[in-house]
User: Which sequence fits this backbone?
């Protein structure tokens, strides 16, 4: 037993040392990273680890841990994986450092598109974009002679036709799990109907025509879903697709690769992607754009920050993208968009373009308030107007406690 | 015992209790009357974010916290009296619901929704835990020696399993196309969606709690059964008492202090129910008071936490436990004094 373990350890050590050759420099500083745990992060942190002395923590709870961990002095992590939603507290509390000098010295391979600037200073390096867009079963749409829907009214019509034909258990899937997911689904639709979340003075503005329309559309869509949609998160929808239970869903682009994973999926090659549907005529696709990328902690010595940045650049290089092309819609040179990326690219380049998820203190409170109050609308306990009024009240009391409203 | 010896024995425990119980409690109490928040300014900020091909830069007025020269966020703390309590209880929505005598509106406010469920949950599971625990204890007590060991082991299993794992295993039996759901669908030839119905989720949560806690009642009561006075039982039999009468008039009175003890522990534990909400993802249908506190404490994407509301909600939960325990505690107190 012991011999076996030793042999295994030996193999790992060997592979680690051969892998280290893939890195352009030998890293001697202990670099710790904290990021989300999806495939793209796995690819990036693995590539970073090739430089040696990198310990990567991939944790879906990163959004709760990051602000406190980066506020510590010295910071518990040198590199953080963030998205435009989770970078807000780090920027607000000043716990990440401007990267202009490091980019000038080591960031030669970065494209201008990747540099996230706040007030002129580079605060983060983006590596990929993510968005929720339409994924659909190409075989079912071909068999039934349906066109790929571009608006939500067409989604409803297609869902009705698929239900009529009875080829899948439920025509639609959606990331409507109570809480963050449900709120995000509402945000997408609400923006699609041209809504704004709050006014310039931080008072809420969701109780509007756009809000009511968004809720009504969502309710109409649920008619074609698994009745258990309030526990259905991204992974649940992904599995519904993989097991051939649904025919359409507005799902994260980062889930695309899983559809063609032969170990899990029964629908390999049968899922296509298209632009996120439009909610109203002349509107932007009803979705938000996201980016994921890295930040460097402020409360660490400068030489560690330098090492961390160089390691991160190795993680974000062309070699990594070529090896993991299908894992994300990379912003890094060398990326070749595949068929699965078509939907995300169509969404991101549509006119008018959907907005980036607004990363503000107000939006954080609004997102929570929406997530907490929407349930009673979908369980039928409250009307759309009452629900929107309740969201505004919940937001207002939270904003007062947070000091955003007097 | 000399006072000094007494103090040496009790001292460490008093210090630890002050440190780990009294001090946090006082902190929470103070927090519930205070609000600490960053000082915000509004400022025009230009933010550039990547599109697929080119960047889009937008200039907008953002509300951002003020940093001091050390780079720390400037925070102010102020006393707010009972306003966090008012927030938790529902504020204006609460007063409107009371004015309209509208129970449905009241039940939509998180706190009252949680209180309704927590109370039902606690009070409904209690008798089931006691009756089931006692039944298993009686069965095991009457089982032949050879199978006693294995039966005790099997009965204790649910109690040993980690709560969240236990909740998840029951969830997987029923949610989506769980095995039991598929059987039931085949049996009644319908299409079931357990997680779509509040009452079904509520039932599963209670079922899980009874399944999980009954072994605890069983262990305590089984121990109690070993001390039942044989002579009293035999004289009852000679007097012609049936099995039921022996249980009713000899065994249960003997076990009463233990039953009160189990009741106390169960009321305390069930009122603080939390893992059921997580295990069964019941947030959309049913939440508990403890979950509400947790929810206030969870930071959102922008890093806001509602510490003051969380403290108020925690205090309210504690007050609830005290009220709930008052009756059984008084009884124990009386018994102790009587004895």
Assistant:
């Amino acid at each position: 037993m012991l011999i076996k373990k030793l042999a295994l350890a030996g193999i790992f050590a060997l592979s680690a040392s051969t892998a280290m050759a893939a890195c352009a420099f030998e890293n001697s500083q202990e670099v710790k990273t904290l990021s989300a745990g999806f495939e793209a992060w796995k690819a990036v942190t693995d590539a970073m680890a090739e430089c040696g002395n990198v310990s990567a923590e991939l944790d879906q709870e990163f959004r709760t841990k990051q602000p406190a961990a980066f506020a510590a002095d010295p910071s518990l992590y040198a590199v953080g994986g963030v998205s435009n939603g989770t970078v807000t507290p780090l920027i607000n509390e000043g716990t990440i450092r401007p990267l202009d000098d490091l980019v000038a010295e080591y960031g030669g391979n970065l494209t201008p598109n990747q540099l996230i600037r706040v007030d002129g200073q580079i605060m983060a390096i983006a590596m990929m974009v993510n968005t929720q867009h339409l994924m659909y079963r190409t075989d079912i749409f071909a068999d039934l002679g349906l066109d790929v829907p571009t608006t939500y009214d067409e989604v409803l019509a297609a869902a009705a036709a698929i239900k009529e034909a009875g080829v899948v258990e439920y025509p639609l899937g959606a990331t409507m799990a109570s809480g963050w997911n449900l709120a995000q689904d509402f945000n997408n639709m609400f923006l699609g109907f041209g809504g704004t979340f709050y006014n310039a003075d931080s008072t809420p503005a969701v109780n509007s025509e756009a809000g009511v329309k968004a809720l009504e559309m969502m309710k109409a869509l649920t008619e074609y879903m698994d009745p258990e949609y309030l526990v259905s998160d991204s992974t649940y929808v992904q599995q519904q697709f993989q097991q051939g239970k649904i025919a359409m869903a507005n799902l994260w682009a980062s889930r695309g690769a899983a559809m063609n994973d032969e170990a899990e999926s029964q629908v390999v090659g049968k899922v296509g992607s298209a632009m996120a549907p439009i909610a109203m005529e002349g509107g932007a696709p009803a979705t938000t754009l996201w980016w994921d990328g890295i930040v460097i902690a402020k409360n660490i010595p400068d030489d560690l920050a330098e090492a961390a940045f160089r390691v991160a650049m190795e993680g974000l290089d062309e070699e990594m993208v070529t090896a993991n092309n299908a894992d994300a819609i990379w912003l890094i040179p060398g990326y070749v968009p595949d068929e699965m990326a078509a939907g995300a690219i169509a969404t991101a380049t549509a006119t008018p373009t959907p907005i980036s998820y607004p990363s503000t203190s107000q939006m954080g409170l609004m997102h929570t308030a929406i997530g907490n109050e929407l349930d009673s609308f979908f369980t039928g306990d409250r009307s759309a107007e009452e629900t929107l009024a309740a969201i505004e009240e919940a937001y207002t009391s939270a904003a007062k406690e947070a000091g955003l409203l007097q | 015992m000399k006072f000094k010896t007494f103090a040496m024995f009790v001292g460490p425990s008093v210090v630890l209790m002050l440190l780990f119980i009294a001090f946090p409690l006082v902190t929470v109490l103070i927090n519930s009357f205070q609000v600490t928040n960053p000082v915000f300014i509004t400022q025009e900020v230009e933010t550039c974010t990547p599109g697929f091909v080119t960047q889009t830069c937008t200039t907008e007025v953002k509300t951002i916290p003020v940093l001091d020269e050390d780079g720390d966020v400037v925070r102010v703390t102020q006393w707010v009296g009972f306003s966090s309590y008012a927030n938790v209880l529902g504020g204006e929505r609460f007063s409107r619901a009371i004015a309209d005598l509208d129970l449905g509106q009241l039940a939509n406010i998180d706190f009252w929704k949680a209180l309704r469920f927590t109370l039902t949950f606690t009070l409904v599971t209690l008798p089931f835990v006691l009756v089931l625990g006692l039944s298993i204890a009686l069965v095991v007590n009457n089982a032949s020696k050879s199978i006693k060991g294995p039966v005790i082991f099997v009965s204790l299993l649910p109690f040993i399993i980690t709560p969240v794992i236990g909740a998840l295993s029951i969830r997987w039996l029923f949610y989506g196309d769980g095995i039991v759901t598929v059987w039931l669908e085949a049996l009644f030839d319908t299409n079931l969606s357990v997680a779509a119905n509040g009452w079904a989720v509520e039932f599963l949560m209670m079922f899980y709690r009874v399944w999980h806690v009954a072994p605890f009642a069983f262990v305590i009561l089984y121990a109690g059964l070993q001390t039942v006075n044989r002579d009293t039982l035999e004289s009852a039999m000679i007097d012609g008492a049936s099995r039921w009468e022996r249980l009713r008039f000899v065994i249960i009175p003997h076990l009463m202090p233990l039953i009160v003890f189990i009741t106390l522990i169960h009321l305390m534990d069930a009122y603080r129910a939390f893992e059921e909400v997580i295990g069964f993802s019941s947030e959309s249908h049913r939440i508990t008071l403890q979950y509400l506190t947790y929810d206030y404490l969870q930071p959102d994407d922008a890093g806001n936490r509602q510490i003051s509301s969380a403290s108020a909600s925690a205090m309210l939960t504690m007050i609830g436990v005290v009220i709930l325990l008052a009756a059984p505690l008084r009884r124990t107190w009386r018994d102790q004094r009587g004895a």
Summary: Chain B touches chain A through 59 residues (CB under 8 Å). Chain B has 14 helices and four strands.
